[in-house]
Amino acid sequence: MHSFGYRANALLTFALTILALMCAIASFSDNFNFPSPSAQIQIVKFNWFQKQVHGNDEVSLTMNITADLQSLFTWNTKQLFIFVAAEYETPQNSLNQVSLWDAIIPAKEHAKFWIQTANKYRFIDQGSNLRGKEFNLTLHWHVMPKTGKMFADKLVMSGFRMPEEHR
Amino acid sequence: MDWQGQKLAELWMQVLLIVFAVVAFATGYIMGSFRTMMLIYAGGVVFTSLVTVPNWPFFNRHPLKWLDPSEAEKHPKPQQQVVASKDKKKSSKK
């Protein structure tokens, strides 16, 4: 501590150590938040449903997505990434996941929303298994914190069924 | 900066930084604003470096008192050491 440089170095080192500790505690404080998110998805209609030239089923649908994800936000949350995936079982795969729509929620004020949208990404099966298929729509979310570990969770909404015939 | 001043500077540095960190964290957590925490802490670091890094006069209130040179001449070093060193030099030459 005898010279300007030594004192500046000691101060900077100690300040950054404390900063790391503050960030760690801030990240830990997220554990005291017990979120209770809610979401509903309704399928308004199946716009069309067809077999592609090479045999894969493709469907276009319009959804109503209502969600209240405000409780996921804490003081240490930067943003939410959310996406809706269709999940179903086929003889080849026990779980197929097709992402239909996604969004980034940058602030708590935007976390309670309602949107009517067609699928943003194409809903194509690996094969021709979609006719009359029961499937789930799952809302996944990834919470991106300002410091610390990113974590993810989901809400599964089941009981949807594909049309019986191509159209 | 004298010895007491160095001790004081180190103590002040640690105390100020910890106090600012606690205040910043508490304010940020209560207001729910990460940004507020960072701004308060950044301000605290700047303030602490202004207080403890420059060589302020109040770090120099305990100057070392060296003996006057004339005092040293009155009390020369014991002669034995000088003799011993001469002997060594001679022995090394032979």
Describe what you observe in this structure:
The complex is a heterodimer of chains A (about 170) and B (about 90). In chain A, β3 (about 75-90) and β4 form a beta hairpin. The mean pLDDT of chain A is about 90. Chain A is of the alpha+beta class and about 170 residues long. Chain A folds into two domains: about 1-30; about 35-160, Immunoglobulin-like (Sandwich), CATH 2.60.40. In chain A, strands 1, 2, 5 and 6 form a four-stranded antiparallel sheet that branches. Chain A has one helix spanning about 5-30, and strands at about 40-50, 55-70, 75-90, 95-105, 110-120, 125, 135-145, 150-160. Chain B is an all-alpha fold and about 90 residues long. Chain B has a domain at about 1-65. Chain B is built from four helices and no strands. In chain B, α1 runs antiparallel to α2 (about 35-50). Chain B is rod-shaped and about 75 Å long. The two termini of chain B are about 50 Å apart. In chain B, about 15% of the residues are buried. The model of chain B is unreliable at about 90-94 (pLDDT under 50). At the A-B interface, α1 of A face α1 and α2 of B.
Keywords:
heterodimer, A: 167 residues, alpha+beta, Immunoglobulin-like, 2 domains, 8 strands, B: 94 residues, mainly alpha, 4 helices, disordered C terminus, SPC3 (chain A), endoplasmic reticulum (chain A)
Mean pLDDT of chain B: 84
**How large is the share of residues in beta strands of chain A?**
over 45%
Tell me, what's the shape of chain A? elongated
Biggest interface, CB < 8 A: A-B, 20 and 27 residues
Largest sheet of chain B: none
Q: Which term fits the overall shape of chain B? A: rod-shaped
| CATH fold naming of the largest domain in chain A | Immunoglobulin-like
Helix content of chain B: over 70%
Overall SS class of chain A: alpha+beta
CATH architecture of the largest domain in chain A: Sandwich
Largest sheet of chain A at a glance? 4 strands, antiparallel
Average residue pLDDT of chain A:
92
Rg of chain B from C-alpha positions?
27 Å
Overall number of strands of chain A: 8
Q: Can you identify the CATH class of the largest domain in chain A?
A: Mainly Beta
Please provide the count of β strands of chain B: 0
Share of helix of chain A, binned: 10-25%
